[in-house]
Amino acid sequence: MKRTKIFIALIAIFVVTISCDEDFLEREPLDKISDTAVYNDEGYVESILFRLYNYMPVGYPGRGQSNQQPGRNSNGFTSILDNNTDIAMTKSGWIESWRHIRPGNITPTNNPLDNWKELYEAIYLANLLLSNLQDADLDEAFKARITAEARFVKAFQYFDLARRYGDAPIIREIQTLEDDLLVSRDPVSDVYAYVDEEFTAAAASLPSKVDLSDSENGRATKEAAWAFNGRAQLFAKNYSRSAVLSKMVMDSGVHVLSADYEALFQSHGGDPEVIFEVLFDGVNKGHGMDRLMLPFSYRADWGAQCNPTQEFVDSYEMTNGLSITDPASGYNPLKPYEGRDSRFHATVLYQGAEFIGRPMDVIFPDGLDAPLRTGLHSITGYYIRKFMDQSAPFGVGFGESKQSWKEMRLAEVLLNYAEAQNEAIGPDATVYNAINQIRSRAGQPDLPVGLSKAEMFDKIMHERKIELALEGQRFWDLKRWKMGVEVLNGNMFTGMKVLSVDPVSGEMELERYPIDFRPTTVYFDRFDLFPIPQSEIEKNPNLTQNPGY
To answer: What per-residue confidence (pLDDT) applies to 509?
Structure first.
């Protein structure tokens, strides 16, 4: 039975190998070698590991093209996760956001963001690798590192299970026919404790980022294990533990904030701020972000599937640190895009923004990029700049984009630390320092001193919304803060029409409008967790369903 499972897994594993030398490609077919030979060969073992890495998340849309090859399709499928929040929305009614998620149609038999099956596939593969490594005749240092990397990936899968589904079965070792396969769900607190255990064990044997060669970029490091564990324990509300873990990353000094916020998200790998990323080359492995998200006029097809809302645009501060609603901010509603936080200009495309050789023209109704001009144009009057590869060729296709997906970066670690420390201790000097580092990179002034714990939490919420915009964090933050009903339910978000621009003064005639031609967003408390797939409950009656489903 064990041998059969190994061969089934390996048929898929070696087809997608991306890091191997030439003589590896000429080795015997896998159906002609024994499992002992597989696990006594470093090349084969690394190939299994690299297949396991393909289960790490990708937030770019991919549409399942054959060369993307993650363990599951991208987190947002044909969209991105933050298109289901107050930050942005997708334009097309056929995309899962409008068809299923925003209308509140998530059920145990209908959840386009379900990945229960894929998470347990990854856990099985990790356990299989770990089991066979124990007695493998390999260099001990090699075995220790592969073991640590497998535990790192497994820990992430359990974190993803916990944040999506809550209680979940913990399967620590490879199962056999003699085991009880109809497992029950373990309490979510136990799942987070196991995540802590696995990430901690992985960190002990993983190399530091400073010890990795350039060719090893994309592999786990001890800093990545600390950072992911810090995130996980924040979700678990284990605030003191989370703060300690994030501070270990900060104190290591291995990663630094990138000087250029905009360029960071167009990079193809190796930026010093990035702690863990998934790499693409646009040939052997790619994604569809540019084809699905670039403005129509820069593509002549597809595109524009992420449209920032006016509410999100309004949430950016002025460069003096004041909200646009503050009379002292200097905000000019006739020149609404002047004097704003630099991250706004690096994230959103708006009327007059310079982009790939020309200014954006969203003047309604006939501008090249005007909202609602055709079904391929924005429905809000805004497009995104963040992530867009401005060096990509015109008409870049599915699977040809190669910006790396930055799943963990130092800015998030600083924000995780600030929130955890604020919850555990209050707004001490280290909380201010963490937030102010990020604001300083953006050119924003330091936070005002003397904030209460609640006031600091409000500042942290704002900073996460702005700094991590479109990276999927807002989607999960609203769930873990239990703010989905307050922020999303019943809300109809708005866009902006630029009717004219004075050629001398630059002042704009503007008209705000509701996106009332799409379903009103529905969010119930039960959506803080996903339903357990009905198909899994039918296979295993010991699985219980989440409340409300």
So the answer is: 98
